Amino acid sequence: MIIDKDENISIITQEKATIIELVKKIETLYPKFKNDNIIVNLSSLREITTDEITEFLRISNAHRATGHSFVLVTNHINFNEVPEEIVVVPTTQEAYDIIEMEDIERDLEI
Questions:
Q1: Pairwise CA distance, residues 35 & 68, whole Å
Q2: What is the pLDDT of residues 42-77, one digit of tens each?
């Protein structure tokens, strides 16, 4: 797992761990980036199942409840099967775009 920081965005890139191991690592290291928007880049994985995506649901919901974005990046999944509660996009640029839109929405709510 590689963690990069771009202003208020933490980008977590999966290397070799399984999805379950990755989710556990994110939960363990969560205090390190709890105040940032989070992008989890899963592009290195060839195939990802909907069940694997839902492994991120608990941490995504908790993080989004604090007023931050949580976005998964992969183009190896059927987007029609992804639960609506989790944000999954095919490219990193789209993840940045989603975060920007969600930041604007949060600013308008204030």
A1: 7
A2: 988 878 888 999 999 999 999 999 999 999 999 988
pLDDT tens for 33-48 read 999 999 999 988 878 8
Contacts of 32 (CB under 8 A, 6+ apart): 3, 10
- The two beta strands, 37-41 and 87-89, are unpaired
pLDDT score at 110: 63
Eight-class DSSP state of 103 = H
How far apart CA 59 and CA 68 sit, in angstroms, is: 12
Domains annotated on the chain, with CATH = 2-109 (3.30.750.24)
